[in-house]
Amino acid sequence: xxxxxxxxxxxxxxxxxxxxxxxxxxxxxxxxxxxxxxxxxxxxxxxxxxxxxxxxxxxxxxxxxxxxxxxxxxxxxxxxxxxxxxxxxxxxxxxxxxxxxxxxxxxxxxxxxxxxxxxxxxxxxxxxxxxxxxxxxxxxxxxxxxxxxxxxxxxxxxxxxxxxxxxxxxxxxxxxxxxxxxxxxxxxxxxxxxxxxxxxxxxxxxxxxxxxxxxxxxxxxxxxxxxxxxxxxxxxxxxxxxxxxxxxxxxxxxxxxxxxxxxxxxxxxxxxxxxxxxxxxxxxxxxxxxxxxxxxxxxxxxxxxxxxxxxxxxxxxxxxxxxxxxxxxxxxxxxx
Length: 336
Known about the structure:
Elements: E1 3-10, H1 27-32, E2 35-37, E3 40-42, H2 44-50, H3 62-85, E4 90-95, E5 110-113, E6 117-120, H4 125-130, E7 148-151, H5 154-166, E8 172-174, H6 190-199, E9 207-212, H7 223-238, E10 245-251, H8 261-272, H9 276-280, H10 294-306, E11 311-320, E12 327-335
Parallel strand pairs: 1-10, 4-9, 4-10, 5-8
Antiparallel strand pairs: 1-12, 2-3, 5-9, 6-7, 11-12
Protein backbone atom coordinates (compact mmCIF):
# COMPACT_ATOMS: atom_id res chain seq x y z
CA UNK A 1 0.00 0.00 0.00
CA UNK A 2 1.25 3.47 -0.86
CA UNK A 3 1.53 6.03 1.91
CA UNK A 4 1.89 9.80 2.02
CA UNK A 5 4.96 10.31 4.19
CA UNK A 6 5.79 13.95 3.43
CA UNK A 7 3.98 17.15 2.53
CA UNK A 8 5.65 20.35 1.38
CA UNK A 9 4.28 23.82 0.72
CA UNK A 10 6.50 26.38 -0.97
CA UNK A 11 6.13 29.76 -2.55
CA UNK A 12 7.64 30.08 -6.01
CA UNK A 13 7.50 33.81 -6.74
CA UNK A 14 10.05 35.44 -9.06
CA UNK A 15 11.57 37.43 -6.19
CA UNK A 16 12.97 34.15 -4.82
CA UNK A 17 15.13 33.87 -7.93
CA UNK A 18 15.93 37.56 -8.33
CA UNK A 19 18.93 39.25 -6.69
CA UNK A 20 17.52 41.28 -3.77
CA UNK A 21 19.19 44.40 -5.13
CA UNK A 22 16.69 44.18 -8.03
CA UNK A 23 13.52 43.37 -6.09
CA UNK A 24 12.06 46.72 -7.11
CA UNK A 25 12.32 45.93 -10.85
CA UNK A 26 8.56 45.37 -11.08
CA UNK A 27 7.55 48.51 -9.19
CA UNK A 28 7.02 50.53 -12.41
CA UNK A 29 4.57 47.84 -13.54
CA UNK A 30 2.97 47.86 -10.07
CA UNK A 31 2.32 51.58 -10.46
CA UNK A 32 0.45 51.02 -13.72
CA UNK A 33 -1.60 47.99 -12.68
CA UNK A 34 -4.79 47.57 -10.71
CA UNK A 35 -4.43 45.24 -7.71
CA UNK A 36 -6.96 42.97 -5.97
CA UNK A 37 -6.74 43.31 -2.19
CA UNK A 38 -9.26 41.97 0.34
CA UNK A 39 -12.03 41.65 -2.20
CA UNK A 40 -11.61 45.09 -3.80
CA UNK A 41 -9.43 46.45 -6.59
CA UNK A 42 -7.10 49.42 -6.06
CA UNK A 43 -4.66 51.55 -7.96
CA UNK A 44 -1.11 51.90 -6.64
CA UNK A 45 -1.59 55.33 -5.08
CA UNK A 46 -4.84 54.20 -3.47
CA UNK A 47 -2.97 51.34 -1.79
CA UNK A 48 -0.25 53.70 -0.57
CA UNK A 49 -2.88 55.82 1.16
CA UNK A 50 -4.89 52.87 2.46
CA UNK A 51 -1.88 51.14 3.97
CA UNK A 52 0.08 54.13 5.22
CA UNK A 53 -0.61 53.28 8.91
CA UNK A 54 1.35 50.02 8.43
CA UNK A 55 4.57 51.95 7.67
CA UNK A 56 5.53 49.47 4.97
CA UNK A 57 8.29 51.81 3.87
CA UNK A 58 10.23 50.71 6.95
CA UNK A 59 10.45 47.24 5.39
CA UNK A 60 11.97 48.41 2.12
CA UNK A 61 15.59 48.84 1.13
CA UNK A 62 18.47 46.68 -0.01
CA UNK A 63 19.66 45.58 3.44
CA UNK A 64 16.19 44.39 4.44
CA UNK A 65 15.74 42.72 1.07
CA UNK A 66 19.06 40.90 1.43
CA UNK A 67 18.10 39.59 4.86
CA UNK A 68 14.71 38.37 3.71
CA UNK A 69 16.16 36.82 0.57
CA UNK A 70 18.64 34.93 2.77
CA UNK A 71 15.83 33.63 4.99
CA UNK A 72 13.92 32.43 1.94
CA UNK A 73 16.94 30.62 0.54
CA UNK A 74 17.59 28.96 3.90
CA UNK A 75 13.97 27.83 4.10
CA UNK A 76 14.15 26.39 0.59
CA UNK A 77 17.33 24.53 1.55
CA UNK A 78 15.48 23.06 4.54
CA UNK A 79 12.60 21.88 2.35
CA UNK A 80 14.99 20.36 -0.18
CA UNK A 81 16.81 18.50 2.60
CA UNK A 82 13.53 17.22 4.04
CA UNK A 83 12.61 15.94 0.60
CA UNK A 84 15.97 14.24 0.09
CA UNK A 85 15.91 12.65 3.55
CA UNK A 86 12.41 11.20 3.03
CA UNK A 87 13.53 8.87 0.20
CA UNK A 88 10.41 9.48 -1.82
CA UNK A 89 9.35 7.03 -4.55
CA UNK A 90 6.85 9.31 -6.29
CA UNK A 91 5.41 12.79 -5.84
CA UNK A 92 2.11 14.48 -6.51
CA UNK A 93 2.75 18.16 -7.28
CA UNK A 94 -0.18 20.58 -7.07
CA UNK A 95 0.35 23.85 -8.90
CA UNK A 96 -1.37 26.24 -11.25
CA UNK A 97 -0.87 27.49 -14.78
CA UNK A 98 -0.55 31.15 -15.76
CA UNK A 99 -1.21 30.92 -19.49
CA UNK A 100 1.88 28.73 -19.90
CA UNK A 101 0.27 25.50 -21.13
CA UNK A 102 -3.35 26.70 -21.34
CA UNK A 103 -4.98 30.03 -22.18
CA UNK A 104 -8.35 31.35 -21.19
CA UNK A 105 -9.96 30.15 -24.43
CA UNK A 106 -9.57 26.67 -22.90
CA UNK A 107 -8.84 26.65 -19.17
CA UNK A 108 -9.61 23.43 -17.25
CA UNK A 109 -10.71 23.81 -13.64
CA UNK A 110 -8.74 20.67 -12.74
CA UNK A 111 -6.14 18.93 -14.88
CA UNK A 112 -4.12 15.79 -14.10
CA UNK A 113 -1.25 14.72 -16.33
CA UNK A 114 -1.16 10.99 -17.07
CA UNK A 115 1.77 10.71 -19.45
CA UNK A 116 5.19 9.14 -19.12
CA UNK A 117 7.24 12.33 -19.14
CA UNK A 118 7.19 16.11 -19.33
CA UNK A 119 9.83 18.54 -20.54
CA UNK A 120 11.18 21.92 -19.59
CA UNK A 121 13.59 24.19 -21.40
CA UNK A 122 15.23 27.59 -21.11
CA UNK A 123 13.53 30.53 -22.76
CA UNK A 124 15.10 32.13 -25.79
CA UNK A 125 16.26 35.74 -25.92
CA UNK A 126 13.28 36.45 -28.18
CA UNK A 127 10.88 35.00 -25.58
CA UNK A 128 12.53 36.94 -22.76
CA UNK A 129 12.00 40.17 -24.68
CA UNK A 130 8.24 39.51 -24.59
CA UNK A 131 8.06 39.04 -20.82
CA UNK A 132 6.74 41.58 -18.31
CA UNK A 133 9.39 43.63 -16.45
CA UNK A 134 11.32 41.81 -13.75
CA UNK A 135 10.38 38.30 -14.92
CA UNK A 136 13.18 37.25 -17.27
CA UNK A 137 15.84 37.66 -14.59
CA UNK A 138 14.12 35.02 -12.44
CA UNK A 139 13.97 32.37 -15.17
CA UNK A 140 16.82 30.21 -13.76
CA UNK A 141 14.63 29.60 -10.70
CA UNK A 142 12.27 27.42 -12.70
CA UNK A 143 14.00 26.77 -16.04
CA UNK A 144 16.95 24.39 -16.54
CA UNK A 145 20.04 25.57 -18.42
CA UNK A 146 19.20 23.20 -21.28
CA UNK A 147 16.15 21.23 -22.41
CA UNK A 148 15.37 18.39 -20.01
CA UNK A 149 12.80 15.62 -19.88
CA UNK A 150 11.49 14.46 -16.51
CA UNK A 151 9.83 11.17 -15.55
CA UNK A 152 6.17 11.13 -14.63
CA UNK A 153 4.24 8.26 -13.05
CA UNK A 154 1.62 7.58 -15.71
CA UNK A 155 0.02 4.63 -13.92
CA UNK A 156 -0.36 6.57 -10.68
CA UNK A 157 -1.71 9.53 -12.64
CA UNK A 158 -4.36 7.37 -14.25
CA UNK A 159 -5.19 5.88 -10.85
CA UNK A 160 -5.70 9.36 -9.40
CA UNK A 161 -7.89 10.35 -12.32
CA UNK A 162 -10.09 7.26 -12.02
CA UNK A 163 -10.51 7.80 -8.29
CA UNK A 164 -11.35 11.46 -8.76
CA UNK A 165 -13.92 10.64 -11.43
CA UNK A 166 -15.47 8.01 -9.17
CA UNK A 167 -15.82 10.66 -6.45
CA UNK A 168 -17.58 13.06 -8.86
CA UNK A 169 -14.70 15.29 -9.81
CA UNK A 170 -14.62 16.24 -13.48
CA UNK A 171 -10.99 15.96 -14.58
CA UNK A 172 -9.23 17.11 -17.72
CA UNK A 173 -6.32 14.84 -18.59
CA UNK A 174 -3.70 14.29 -21.25
CA UNK A 175 -0.76 12.01 -21.88
CA UNK A 176 1.30 14.67 -23.69
CA UNK A 177 2.12 18.10 -22.32
CA UNK A 178 -0.13 20.85 -23.76
CA UNK A 179 1.71 23.81 -25.27
CA UNK A 180 -1.15 26.21 -25.89
CA UNK A 181 0.15 29.06 -23.76
CA UNK A 182 1.50 32.49 -24.56
CA UNK A 183 4.34 32.85 -27.05
CA UNK A 184 7.00 33.43 -24.39
CA UNK A 185 6.17 30.24 -22.47
CA UNK A 186 7.30 26.71 -23.24
CA UNK A 187 7.70 23.53 -21.24
CA UNK A 188 6.17 23.15 -17.79
CA UNK A 189 4.45 25.96 -15.87
CA UNK A 190 6.79 27.76 -13.49
CA UNK A 191 4.92 26.34 -10.49
CA UNK A 192 6.32 22.92 -11.38
CA UNK A 193 9.68 24.01 -12.75
CA UNK A 194 10.41 25.72 -9.44
CA UNK A 195 9.86 22.45 -7.56
CA UNK A 196 12.11 20.57 -9.99
CA UNK A 197 14.91 23.07 -9.51
CA UNK A 198 14.65 24.22 -5.90
CA UNK A 199 13.13 21.26 -4.04
CA UNK A 200 14.33 18.31 -6.14
CA UNK A 201 17.57 20.05 -7.20
CA UNK A 202 17.09 18.86 -10.79
CA UNK A 203 16.98 15.20 -9.67
CA UNK A 204 13.34 14.88 -10.66
CA UNK A 205 11.61 11.71 -9.52
CA UNK A 206 8.51 10.09 -11.05
CA UNK A 207 5.62 12.39 -10.30
CA UNK A 208 2.07 13.39 -11.20
CA UNK A 209 1.41 17.06 -12.04
CA UNK A 210 -1.99 18.29 -10.84
CA UNK A 211 -3.02 21.72 -12.15
CA UNK A 212 -5.74 23.71 -10.36
CA UNK A 213 -7.14 26.78 -12.11
CA UNK A 214 -6.68 29.22 -9.26
CA UNK A 215 -6.23 32.37 -11.35
CA UNK A 216 -8.85 32.69 -14.04
CA UNK A 217 -12.60 33.23 -13.55
CA UNK A 218 -15.19 31.90 -13.84
CA UNK A 219 -14.29 28.22 -13.29
CA UNK A 220 -11.97 28.54 -10.29
CA UNK A 221 -12.51 25.69 -7.78
CA UNK A 222 -13.57 27.13 -4.44
CA UNK A 223 -11.62 26.59 -1.24
CA UNK A 224 -14.02 23.93 0.03
CA UNK A 225 -13.68 22.01 -3.22
CA UNK A 226 -9.91 22.05 -2.79
CA UNK A 227 -10.40 20.48 0.66
CA UNK A 228 -12.40 17.68 -0.97
CA UNK A 229 -9.71 17.29 -3.62
CA UNK A 230 -7.11 16.69 -0.91
CA UNK A 231 -9.32 14.12 0.77
CA UNK A 232 -9.71 12.21 -2.46
CA UNK A 233 -6.03 12.37 -3.33
CA UNK A 234 -5.29 10.83 0.08
CA UNK A 235 -7.85 8.05 -0.51
CA UNK A 236 -6.47 7.36 -3.97
CA UNK A 237 -2.91 7.07 -2.65
CA UNK A 238 -4.05 4.75 0.16
CA UNK A 239 -5.74 2.49 -2.39
CA UNK A 240 -2.67 2.20 -4.62
CA UNK A 241 -1.60 -1.45 -4.31
CA UNK A 242 2.18 -0.99 -4.45
CA UNK A 243 4.33 -0.12 -1.45
CA UNK A 244 5.44 3.41 -2.19
CA UNK A 245 6.54 6.46 -0.25
CA UNK A 246 4.62 9.42 -1.62
CA UNK A 247 5.22 13.15 -1.22
CA UNK A 248 2.54 15.74 -1.89
CA UNK A 249 3.91 19.17 -2.80
CA UNK A 250 2.11 22.51 -3.12
CA UNK A 251 3.67 25.27 -5.20
CA UNK A 252 2.58 28.91 -5.05
CA UNK A 253 1.34 31.69 -2.77
CA UNK A 254 1.17 33.16 -0.31
CA UNK A 255 -0.49 36.59 -0.65
CA UNK A 256 0.57 38.56 -3.72
CA UNK A 257 0.78 40.71 -5.70
CA UNK A 258 -0.31 42.73 -2.67
CA UNK A 259 0.93 41.24 0.59
CA UNK A 260 -1.59 40.67 3.38
CA UNK A 261 0.23 39.33 6.43
CA UNK A 262 -2.90 39.06 8.56
CA UNK A 263 -4.66 36.93 5.95
CA UNK A 264 -1.57 34.77 5.46
CA UNK A 265 -1.27 34.06 9.18
CA UNK A 266 -4.95 33.22 9.39
CA UNK A 267 -4.59 30.85 6.44
CA UNK A 268 -1.54 29.10 7.90
CA UNK A 269 -3.33 28.66 11.22
CA UNK A 270 -6.31 27.09 9.44
CA UNK A 271 -4.01 24.61 7.67
CA UNK A 272 -2.12 23.75 10.85
CA UNK A 273 -5.27 23.04 12.88
CA UNK A 274 -6.51 21.72 10.39
CA UNK A 275 -9.79 23.65 10.35
CA UNK A 276 -11.73 22.33 7.38
CA UNK A 277 -14.78 24.49 8.05
CA UNK A 278 -12.64 27.60 8.40
CA UNK A 279 -10.90 26.85 5.10
CA UNK A 280 -14.26 26.34 3.41
CA UNK A 281 -15.37 29.79 4.59
CA UNK A 282 -12.37 31.66 3.18
CA UNK A 283 -13.83 34.48 1.04
CA UNK A 284 -13.49 33.76 -2.65
CA UNK A 285 -13.06 37.46 -3.40
CA UNK A 286 -9.89 37.46 -1.30
CA UNK A 287 -8.47 34.43 -3.12
CA UNK A 288 -7.76 36.18 -6.40
CA UNK A 289 -4.71 37.11 -8.45
CA UNK A 290 -1.51 35.64 -7.00
CA UNK A 291 -3.13 35.07 -3.62
CA UNK A 292 -5.34 32.49 -5.36
CA UNK A 293 -2.36 30.11 -5.34
CA UNK A 294 -3.15 29.39 -1.70
CA UNK A 295 -5.66 26.98 -3.21
CA UNK A 296 -2.73 24.79 -4.29
CA UNK A 297 -1.83 24.42 -0.62
CA UNK A 298 -5.29 23.37 0.53
CA UNK A 299 -5.41 19.88 -1.07
CA UNK A 300 -1.83 19.19 0.03
CA UNK A 301 -2.64 20.21 3.62
CA UNK A 302 -5.80 18.12 3.62
CA UNK A 303 -4.12 15.06 2.13
CA UNK A 304 -1.21 15.37 4.57
CA UNK A 305 -3.54 15.65 7.56
CA UNK A 306 -5.52 12.64 6.33
CA UNK A 307 -2.26 10.70 6.31
CA UNK A 308 -1.62 11.66 9.95
CA UNK A 309 1.13 14.19 9.25
CA UNK A 310 1.60 17.35 11.31
CA UNK A 311 2.40 20.76 9.89
CA UNK A 312 5.57 22.67 10.75
CA UNK A 313 6.10 26.25 9.61
CA UNK A 314 9.69 26.50 8.40
CA UNK A 315 9.43 30.25 7.75
CA UNK A 316 7.12 33.02 6.65
CA UNK A 317 8.80 35.97 4.96
CA UNK A 318 6.84 38.98 3.68
CA UNK A 319 8.91 40.33 0.79
CA UNK A 320 7.66 43.86 0.13
CA UNK A 321 8.93 45.78 -2.87
CA UNK A 322 6.93 49.02 -2.57
CA UNK A 323 5.19 51.26 -0.05
CA UNK A 324 1.86 50.13 -1.56
CA UNK A 325 2.47 46.67 -0.12
CA UNK A 326 3.17 45.05 -3.48
CA UNK A 327 5.48 42.07 -3.46
CA UNK A 328 5.14 38.42 -2.46
CA UNK A 329 4.67 36.89 0.97
CA UNK A 330 6.78 33.73 0.94
CA UNK A 331 5.71 30.66 2.90
CA UNK A 332 7.60 27.44 3.53
CA UNK A 333 5.92 24.54 5.27
CA UNK A 334 6.52 20.84 5.83
CA UNK A 335 4.11 18.10 6.96
CA UNK A 336 5.74 15.08 8.58
